[in-house]
């Protein structure tokens, strides 16, 4: 089944070496990527996430850097 969704301001993220639980990523990504508004984060596969920004400014900010490094203690 194909569902037509609003995929405006969407960025796909990839993890090279491993990833955290989705609940942890939903807390860390907006803070560490310095996003100004809320964003929706979901899993696409075991190494890819979908980040849907609500602001054009956040979308441009995510695309403006070649990589973001997500850090957490004890990981």
Automatic annotation (TrEMBL):
One Pfam family in the UniProt entry: DUF4283
Residue ranges of domain DUF4283 in the record: 4-72
UniProt xrefs under InterPro entries: DUF4283
Domain of life: Eukaryota
Protein name: DUF4283 domain-containing protein
Organism: Solanum verrucosum
The organism's taxonomic lineage, starting at the top: Eukaryota, Viridiplantae, Streptophyta, Embryophyta, Tracheophyta
């Amino acid at each position: 089944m194909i569902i037509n969704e609003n995929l405006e301001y969407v960025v796909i993220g990839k993890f090279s070496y491993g990833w955290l639980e989705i609940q942890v990523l939903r807390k860390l990504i907006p803070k560490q990527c310095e996003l100004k508004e809320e964003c929706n984060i979901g899993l696409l596969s075991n190494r890819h996430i979908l980040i849907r920004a609500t602001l054009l400014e956040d979308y441009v900010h995510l695309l403006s850097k070649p990589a973001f490094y997500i850090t957490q203690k004890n990981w």
